[in-house]
Each structure stands twice: as structure tokens, then as C-alpha cells.
Amino acid sequence: MSTPNVFILASDNSPQLLPLLRSKPSIASSQDEHGYSLLHAAASYNHHDLLRTLIRDYHVDVNIKDEDGETPLFVTETVDTAKLLIEELNCDTSLQNDEGSTAEEKIRTEGEFVTVADYLKTVRTRTTNDSSTTDESNRTGRQEEESLPPLPPNVTVNMGTTTEDEVPEDVDPAFRARIEELASREDFQGEEGQKQLRELVTDAVRGVEGRDVRRRVE
Taking each helix axis from N to C terminus, what angle separates 114-146 and 191-206, rounded to the nearest 10 degrees? Predict the structure, then answer.
């Protein structure tokens, strides 16, 4: 008895395929002489459950490529399947085929599944905007840090931990309350928490300007 063609079984979403995979799991990652895989077949024919099974249960690479360097996303014909591959199965939309085209570019050029290309464009635009927002936030944080005024001459600051008994009794209650409130925040070790700590220390140091400051601020 001849072995059934697994690529046809995947294209047809045949009930014979899963038992075959269970008996021989390595079939899940198989490719024909052109690099065509079960994932390419499942994506092309919109077999969502089969896509999930191959990727999650049999750990097939969602970005598996055929001989033209094209992933299953390149052969997607519906927005629903493209969404599944991208939003649920985390395929890479930026990969290019051997001609240097992304899935969006190739699908739009072919002109048959324009709605898929339009969806891929929205994904690309959203990703670009998110990246730009993150970069701008990082730049703003650095600029704010660089704009903090320098400490007065002969004053150094040592950031460390201390016990309650080691805190001098003459510490201003309001300043102490601000320190305790800041230290209790979940983002204390993060960029925003550390920025506010620096500002708090700067405010404290400014309070001693004009005095004869001879000891380090610990």
C-alpha cells in the first residue's frame, strides 16, 4: 500500500493526516522538492486548526521557507488566516523572499488578494508607529536626565539602602515621607522611579546650598 501524499492531505484537511502525524511526528516538518510544506498548504487553504496543531503541537517553524524563500504568510489568501499567523502564531511579517519582497509587497503586486495586502500594511504601519513611540520616549527620558542640574561643588551622593534605625532623627518629616513613598512604588527601580529619586535628591541638596557644607551627603 502506497504512502498517501501528506501535502494533498494537508490541502484537503483530510482526517487521515492527524493519525499519520501521531504515528510519525517528523512528517509535520516535511517539505517537498520545492520546499512546499504542510504549513504552506494549511495557510493557502485556510485550515486554521491544522495550522495551530502543526505549530503548537509539532513545533513546526511558523516562518518555514520554500525554495523561493517564502513563508506560509506569502501564500495566504484571506485576512483571517493572515491574522491567525501574525496575531496568534507570531509569524514575522518583515521577512523577504529571494527577490527581496515581503509578503505584503508580493501579494499586492500579484493583485489577487488585495485585502490581505491592505491588512499587512496596517500591521506594518502599526509596528512602525509603536517603534517610533518607543524611540521618542527613550529620547525624552535621556533629555530629561541630561537636563537635571549638577550638584553643588564638594557634594557627592551615595545611593544605598539603610535601616530605619540608621536614619537621623533630624530628617525633615516631609522629605522622609517622600523618600518612603517613592521607595514603596513598584517602578522604583525603573527609569521613571530613578528619575524622580534624582530630582528628590537634587531638591534636598539645593536646600543646603548657602550653608558650610563639609560632609558628604550619604
Answer: 20
